[in-house]
Amino acid sequence: ATLLHQHRDAIKVLKPENGTSPHVFYLGLDDAFVTPLMGRAQPALWQEV
Hints:
alpha+beta, 2 helices
């Protein structure tokens, strides 16, 4: 709890719009992972194109 309090400004969670209580907290997580992408997803490396 102390670490969470010390780094509260830098902590990010996935899907904050859900309003749920997170169990995993991220320090230094890029905003690209927090904000859902709009549109079609890019094919993964292992998918056939």
